[in-house]
Amino acid sequence: MNPPLAPIDNSFLKEIVARRDLSVHFQPIVSVATGHILAYEALSRGPRDSPYANPIPMFRAARECGLLAALECGCRERAIESWVDTGLGELLFLNVSPEILIDPEDLGDRALALLQQHGLSPARLVIEITEQSPGIDPDLMAEAARNYQAMGFSIALDDLGDGYAGLRLWSQLNPDYVKLDRHFVSRLDEDRVKLRFVRSIIDIAHSMDSRVIAEGVEREGELDTLLELGADYCQGWLFARPDAAPQRIREALEARLASLAANRRPATAATEIQRLSVPLPALDADLCVAEASERFSRLPHANALAVVDGRSRPIGILGRQQLMALLGKRFGFDLHGRQPITKVMRTQALCVEAHEPLERVSRKVTGREEASRDEDFIITDGGRYLGMGHVINLLQLFTEQQVQLARQANPLTQLPGNRPIRVALEHYQRQARGFVACYLDLDNFKPFNDRFGYALGDRMILALANLVSSELGREDFLGHLGGDDFILLLDDGKNLHRRLAGIQQRFIVESHALVPADARAEGGFHAKDRYDQWRFFPLVRLSIIALRVGAEARVESFGDLWSHFKPAAKRAGNGRVVVRLDCRSAPVGE
3-state class of 419 per DSSP? Predict the structure, then answer.
């Protein structure tokens, strides 16, 4: 619920705007899956200890007394000035109200002038449209948003699901990012209805080539559910609170993200837990302790047995040592032999589904209390008992998988290497629908490496790997052939040019942040060419060859096609070539 509106003091508010008595805090937007910081959102505040210290009453009052445009202009200026002072190189999200978005005097020109004044590119800025103003024509907003996008800005739609225009506005804006309202995020892991809403929103967003940012993430349970549903980015107190000097807590934030990512990193190739299932017979719930003891005597290698109800659903677990300790006491058999096993079993049994990824099950097993960490667990299939799992077998399988993945992964980026890339290409070709096969390459990378050293070159390669990984949809694939060569497979080619251009723009931002200041100022650097002669090279650029492979097309050698179009991509002004392939014609450029 929004706080009550404070009495409007026009003179005080005018004074705030005139003096720009505003402070700006920044909150990070992160990708937990990759441990990557995408951006920071600028959050403006009024004077401390005043009625407008909270931004909501301040902006409401400004709207009421006709000062909204002046206030937002001041906030925008303070935000960009403060952002430049942080020295950070991520994207910056700036909130813009619908009234200002459609203002014909404010269609991006002021923002462009402000950015140029501070040496920033429009690619560094995301215009976040707030949903607070009923009555504004969505068609006008969509036209204004397209105008911003044409100038190089990205667009985000704030508080999706909590606004006046809702899905209609979303469909008309076609934003680069949509921000999931915190109402749907709060206790998401405990609310089935919210979970259905969020799953649908994420599916729709990805079908429209928008990335989803979940706001208000405060608990790890919420985070786990969001990651499982496929949310792209998260924002909230779980990662960091808004801070006026985010660079001071940057190291702590990166350590936090590394820890969260390490605990949640999905397996590259999910291993079904069903392989670990030992088909031991379960104990019926109506058995007595004496009968259970007799069952254990016939199964000398069983450490524990599941207890199931009449529908074969596990309701508990009974361990051999637990049973022997009970019956081994003096008069133990006489006292407990006729008791139902439901009286002595442990009801807090760990149950995992047969088709869960190995890493997720491993986290569940090792996350148990220390006293029960080595105990067997129950494996189910659709909730029904399938068999028992031994921790030692789980750890052995997990170790084998990690060794196998390490052998097939690129040692620098840990992305799938040559063999998994070949397997992925074969898989995509077997599908009954088309896909896009992209070859990513860095222009002028070798002379950059020679000039500035391999350590800085490796950082640039890692930056590219992280930013592309953070843009992947659930059905997409990214592999690293080696050096500066990457393979990106996209399940859906919608908005392909915009999506590839967005990756290239983000690489410009992140790669330029790694370049020494003098080379950045000159737009390039001097290094030796292949003939051992010194010459000037432009800054490193990402070039992309994208092959739209039709549903009926069959490609004998993707490598030959990529090599054929590689010179054209390097010569292109935007560093990009898109070619359509089908079974009826030769390759056609777009």
Answer: helix
Q: Which two tokens stand for residue 241?
A: 């609170």
DSSP state of 346: B
What does the radius of gyration of the chain's CA atoms come to, in whole angstroms?
Answer: 29
The packing angle between helices 320-327 and 289-298, to 10°, is: 130
DSSP state of 210: P
Contact 317, 349 (CB under 8 A): yes
Give the integer Cα–Cα distance in Å for 506 and 469. Answer: 12
Residue 322 CB coordination number (10 Å):
15
Q: Where, residue-wise, is CATH 3.30.70.270 in the chain?
A: 418-589
Q: How far is CA 485 from CA 17, 42, 473, 509, in A?
A: 51, 35, 20, 19
Q: How far is CA 546 from the centre of its chain?
A: 23
User: Is residue 43 within 8 Å of residue 21, measured between CB atoms?
Assistant: no
Burial of 157 (0-12, 13-18, 19+ CB in 10 A): buried
Assign domain 20-264 to its CATH architecture.
Alpha-Beta Barrel (3.20)
Residues sharing a CB contact under 8 Å with residue 341, sequence separation 6 or more, in sequence order: 283, 285, 287, 288, 289, 292, 307, 316, 318
Q: For each of the chain's 590 residues, which pLDDT tens digit applies? A: 455 545 555 777 778 877 888 889 999 999 886 677 889 999 988 888 787 777 777 888 888 887 887 888 888 889 999 999 999 988 899 998 888 888 766 656 777 888 888 888 887 899 998 865 666 777 888 888 888 888 888 889 887 655 444 567 777 777 888 999 899 999 998 887 888 888 888 878 766 767 889 999 999 999 988 987 878 889 999 999 999 999 999 999 989 988 887 776 544 434 567 888 999 999 999 999 999 999 999 998 899 999 998 878 888 899 998 898 888 888 878 888 888 998 888 876 788 878 777 776 776 776 566 666 778 999 988 668 999 998 888 877 777 776 666 667 788 888 888 888 888 888 788 776 789 999 999 999 999 999 999 999 999 999 999 999 988 876 788 999 989 999 999 987 788 999 999 999 999 999 999 999 999 999 999 999 888 899 999 999 999 999 999 888 888 889 999 999 999 999 999 999 999 988 755 666 67
- State the pTM of this model: 0.49
On whether the 418-589 domain is CATH 3.40.605.10, my answer is: no
Topology (CATH level 3) of domain 272-401: CBS-domain (3.10.580)
**3-class secondary structure for 347-370?**
CCCCEEECCCCHHHHHHHHHCCCH
